[in-house]
Amino acid sequence: MKKIKLITLSLTAFLAVNLNALTLDEAVQTALKNNFDIQSKSYDYYESLENVNLNKSNYLPKLDASYSYTDIDKPNTGVEDQSATASIALSYNLFNGFKDLALKESSQYLAKASSYSLNATKQDIVLNTKSAYLNYLDKQNAKETYESAYKLFKQQYEDSKNRYEQGIIAKNDLLQVQVNMSNAKQNVVKVQGDLNVAKFELSNILGGVDLTNETIEKLDEESIQISNYDESLLENRSEIQALLFNLKSIKELEKSAKAGFYPKVDALVSHNKYYDGFSSNSIKTGEDNQNIAKVNATWNLFNGGYDDSMVTIYKTKYLSANSLLSKTKLEIKLQYENAKSNLEVALQNLETSKLALLQAQENYEIVKNRFDEGISTTTDLTDANYLLTQAKQGFNKAYFDKYLAISTLDRIFEKEVN
């Protein structure tokens, strides 16, 4: 009955609830709000949206106003020595080889690609947050384990010291226990440093939130559950979708480069008014104003092969991006296979580590009782303590490996962020 109680207490330590502590869900939400990588990607996305508006402006007319003043010291006959011209002109591009359409479509595709990239970054941060959170809890349990080992060595040292004073054991045995106790104390100091670093790592992912005086909640098993994972859904990954829209964008840019092979047609309407110097009087010779309307068509016949080179460049970019897409699909498939295997191994290790912990706890009690009766030696008790510490560490690692594997699969299938 005692064995079951020991395991129950060990598991209960993982599930203890502190209502005032930072929970895993709260950590994830804080990271999504404050993480600097997400903020940077968000700005990239906002820029891509503004780039769409920028390219839409090509469909609107352009309105320009101008004013010029001329002063001639020796004017020719019939020419005013001082004159000024004010004009307002409205221009509109009627046709430019579909370049504006291609650039608009390209910017829209890039905006969609940026949106998917932002989502992928959020997914990565969710996984990184969970990993850092689990790493902190792992270090915290390691600290408790080493503190427990130190406590047992300290107790063993007191018992051995009494036995040495009674002449039951040799001084060398006492010194060996003292060395083991000192090593156990060093492990406690080291793991405390690891715990502090783990908290700083979690703080950085949360955007620099001060966790110095914050208690990190023990893991709630309900917060991470194994889901159903459909391999066919891997094609929907944000990274793949972003690359697909990037390919479409490059294709449109290729079309924009081909616009150089077409003529361009522009329309212009302007109103011009002429003045005698800086005065508001119209000049005496000539009309006081002119209204001009014209349509201008141009066609570049040769520009040194620039357009051909740009088309070739975009075709090459397309092939490069397509290769990256194929590589990304293979990498995602590999991620899935690794994560699936890691989960299977973690689940098996967890069951094995439970039995190992149970055996180590039972073994320590047996050896401790035999030591108290003078049957076992200090070396036997030391070995039993080491075995118990290793079993606890193995259980801790297997426990958190399980939830890290689940979190990794959730990230691969983008379970967390919609």
From TrEMBL:
<keyword id="KW-0813">Transport</keyword>
<keyword id="KW-1134">Transmembrane beta strand</keyword>
<feature type="coiled-coil region">
    <location>
        <begin position="329"/>
        <end position="363"/>
    </location>
</feature>
<feature type="signal peptide">
    <location>
        <begin position="1"/>
        <end position="21"/>
    </location>
</feature>
<dbReference type="GO" id="GO:0015288">
    <property type="term" value="F:porin activity"/>
</dbReference>
<dbReference type="GO" id="GO:1990281">
    <property type="term" value="C:efflux pump complex"/>
</dbReference>
<keyword id="KW-0175">Coiled coil</keyword>
<keyword id="KW-0472">Membrane</keyword>
<dbReference type="GO" id="GO:0009279">
    <property type="term" value="C:cell outer membrane"/>
</dbReference>
<keyword id="KW-0732">Signal</keyword>
<protein>
    <submittedName>
        <fullName>RND family efflux system, outer membrane channel protein, TolC family</fullName>
    </submittedName>
</protein>
<dbReference type="GO" id="GO:0015562">
    <property type="term" value="F:efflux transmembrane transporter activity"/>
</dbReference>
<dbReference type="InterPro" id="IPR051906">
    <property type="entry name" value="TolC-like"/>
</dbReference>
<keyword id="KW-0998">Cell outer membrane</keyword>
<comment type="similarity">
    <text>Belongs to the outer membrane factor (OMF) (TC 1.B.17) family.</text>
</comment>
<dbReference type="InterPro" id="IPR003423">
    <property type="entry name" value="OMP_efflux"/>
</dbReference>
<dbReference type="Pfam" id="PF02321">
    <property type="entry name" value="OEP"/>
</dbReference>
<keyword id="KW-0812">Transmembrane</keyword>
